Amino acid sequence: MKLESLRLPLRVEHQLVILLLGSADRPIPSKLHVHKELFILTRTFPKLSELFEFDAYRKGPFSRVAQDTLDDLIERGYVISVGGSYALSEQGRAMYEDIVNGLRRKELIDTMKRIRDIYDKLSIDELLLLVYVTYPEYTVESEELRRLLRKAPKIVDGLLRKGVITERRKEEILNKLKQLLNITEKR
Asked: What DSSP element (H or E) covers 80?
């Protein structure tokens, strides 16, 4: 790793990924979680969607910018990947503290913490199903949708048991799943 690359200022996209990773004291479970959590963040703060540009892809919303940013942060030593999960290195942790100290409003960090608290504990299937049901427009290129629809009742029951959704939300999801099934059968 080149030392001069470590001294380069970080773009806003880099800072946001560092903030997301640092907002909880645990690694993000997978690359898919990083993408989907950033996607959910851009839906909470729509101005951020201009930075990451999510498109429908094989596993739902995907951002080339998010992927390149994550890869760059790993290459520059701010992020480490262990067993498919992602965490900040010591250098990344120090950068996280610098970025947080420079924030005027802490609302962004609070939202990231809530996103991490909810979505980190989900399996990949649970995460994908929730994203697909909430944002069906991102399923058009999905290679996972049909498989997930077959397993959906079991996945939804698991979300209810984990306390991620309420009984009312379960019924909403099951209704939306029926609509998604109709759409996929027409494709």
From this structure: strand 79-82
Please tell me the predicted confidence (pLDDT) of residue 129.
95
Contact between 23 and 109 under an 8 Å Cβ cutoff? The reply is yes
Burial class of residue 104 (count of CB atoms within 10 Å of its CB; 0-12, 13-18, 19+): exposed
Per-residue model confidence (pLDDT) at position 8: 54
Q: At 139, which amino acid appears?
A: T
State the architecture of 1-121 in CATH terms: Orthogonal Bundle (1.10)
User: Residues of CATH 1.10.10 domain(s) within the chain?
Assistant: 1-121
d(CA 26, CA 133): 27
In the chain, the amino acid numbered 97 is E
Tell me which residues of the chain have a pLDDT lower than 50: 1-7
